[in-house]
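User: Hey, quick favor. My workstation is busy. Could you predict this chain's structure for me?
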Amino acid sequence: MPKFAANLHYLFTEVPFLDRFEAAARAGFRGIEFQVPYVHNKEELRKRLDQSGLELVLFDTPMRKWDEGERGITCLPGREAEFREDLKDVVEYSKALNCKLVHVVAGVVKPGMDFDECRRTYISNLRYACEFFAPYGIEIVIEPINKKLGVSTGSPEYTTQGMQGYFLNHTAEANAIIDEVAHPNLGLHLDCYHMQMLEGHLSETLRENIGRLRHLQIAGVPGRYEPDIGEINYPFIFDLLDELGYNGWVASEYRPKGKTLDGFGWAARYGIGSKAP
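Assistant: No problem, here it is.
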């Protein structure tokens, strides 16, 4: 059975962020993820993890100017010094929260930017990050994200249906980058929602990439709602992951249509929701 984690920027938004740790634990989750720990005190986050008995399984490098449309700066020429400074903060939060997997967010390619130059910058920065993180035992992943959609109207901060203009969009592109960086500290992060939006053939992609897959996220298509809403047969996907021997986390990164606890019908067979009051 897959190990399921809750994304705290998407789930349990009925309560303040710091209270979502306990809500996730009471619902039966063993792990959590969230995009940006940096807006919170490290010690307070550590306290919430300890109190809830949860494991933080993934977080992102800084998004930088979110309100201005930035979604990371890894691929942005001229921002290399800022990128390297950000990695120091990542290490501090990794140590405090005992999380050893980090998504290095690529960034947005704006009109008029030279894509090839962005690609060279991206690869150079990834190589630097791999070497920088290695002594701390931190592994990094890159994730293809659809560039068609953006922030959902009325949704909590850092929840999106895509990232408009995002640099990295397809599994084949991610694999080419990983091959070119050629460092054992770099792996693949896939989101079934983005895969279905951009590529389809999910089971084939998972089979082909299981050897370098280190993190997986799920949501229904279309709409990014609960996994049992839409066109993806997730029970089949979960059984396939077991067949393939996947031992990473499967993170629930979806927008509940109603109250979070009311949408766990998909997860009851996996013990999620059953522990909720």
